[in-house]
Amino acid sequence: MNISNNWLNPGGVSLLKTALDLFRDRQAVIASNVANLDTPGYKAKRLDFQSSLRAAVEAERSDGPLPSGKLEVNPILSEVEGPAGPDGNTVSLEREMALMNKNDVLYKSSVELISKELDLLAAAVSGDVR
Amino acid sequence: MNFFTALDISASGLSAQQTRLNVSSSNLANMESTRSPEGGPYKRREAVFAATPLEGGFGAALHSAAADVAVGENLAGVEVAEIKRDDGPGRMVYDPGHPDADEDGYVAYPDINPLEEMVNIMLAGRSYEANLNAATTAKNMAQKALEIMR
Amino acid sequence: MVDKVGFGALRPVEELSAAEPAGRPTVDFETHVQGALEEVSGLQAQADRAVEDLVVDNAGSIHEAMLAMRQAEIGFKLMLTVRNKLVDAYQEIIRMQI
């Protein structure tokens, strides 16, 4: 018996599930940059997934989500080359803080949205509105 | 990978900055110390930071998906790789009455610039706070995820 | 139409109507219910695994465990709703005057 729980993972839910993973990973990348703020020669890292996520959304329209209910994305981890400080470090604390706040808001709104999507499913199932 | 990874990374940053702060405080406190366990005046110390790839404690946190592991392997915490001792000659001050004066009347004091140490302490504090900020954000994000069940 | 009750049959509208033509294999009602029950228990197994990952290995994500639980809950509620409807239908038939 294959578990065809696609009805539990409609477009919005599978996208948000994937996005939650990516935002969480990005938090770790930013934490890593901040921790290495004073490490000589350390290059700041960026987790890029916008184009990959876009392609995954397109692919889902034809193939549906993965068995896990997520989309297949391959985030790219790139290094920031410059401008580097005298010790070769390319982390800018201000930039990292701005990115972190943005990422935080994105994660939190994704949580809100996915809760709402699931509330709708739950309402459809039980027939009453909470 | 999960939020524990981010928290572990931030924790490594916190403890590294803490060490740096301690080293600078110790330098500042020992500006006038003419004796030390290793002989001669106190020697100025400096914490050297190095990025450490996620492993050991972090290893368990690396998760199944291939892309996830690739990202995890490239993330780094930080550690104090060594505490370098400045073995320079020190600052010679003419003070024939001092018990540690040499035959010419000069006393070797540690070669420490208090201004430099103060700046170092301030920067360590700033970086410490940034790491704390990152850890708090990761914690808040994890807490937000609990609301999915509400 | 009674064989539509299975959870697997809850597909988008256009897909349902497209799948309608005569060649559609007829699956008996029991198989459908059986499949639906297995699906719900599969969801719960998935949720259990997510919880294990999180609590035992400290590896899984919090949102992952939460979502798996939530979805298992919704699946279970759907099963309950369907069961209640079935019981209602059964009782209605029992009460039927012949």
Written account of the structure:
The complex is a heterotrimer of chains A (about 130), B (about 150) and C (about 100). With about 130 residues, chain A is mainly α. Helices cover about 55% and strands about 5% of the residues of chain A. Chain A contains 3 helices and 2 strands; from the N terminus they run αβαβα. Chain A has helices at about 10-35, 50-65, 95-125; strands spanning about 45-50, 75-80. In chain A, helix 1 (about 10-35) packs antiparallel against helix 3 (about 95-125). The two termini of chain A are about 35 Å apart. The radius of gyration of chain B is 22 Å and the shape is elongated. Chain B starts with a helix and ends in a 5-residue tail after the last helix. In chain B, helix 1 (about 5-30) packs antiparallel against helix 3. Chain C has 3 helices and no strands. In chain C, helix 2 runs antiparallel to helix 3. Residues about 1-5 of chain C have low confidence and may be disordered.
Which descriptors would you attach to this protein?
heterotrimer; A: 130 residues; mainly alpha; 3 helices; 56% helix; C: 98 residues; elongated
Write the layout of secondary structure elements.
The complex is a heterotrimer of chains A (about 130), B (about 150) and C (about 100).
Chain A: H1 11-35, E1 45-48, H2 50-63, E2 76-79, H3 93-126
Antiparallel strand pairs in A: 1-2
Helix pairs in contact in A: 1-3
Chain B: H1 3-29, E1 45-53, H2 66-74, E2 76-85, E3 91-94, E4 106-109, H3 114-145
Antiparallel strand pairs in B: 1-2, 3-4
Helix pairs in contact in B: 1-3
Chain C: H1 13-18, H2 29-55, H3 62-95
Helix pairs in contact in C: 2-3
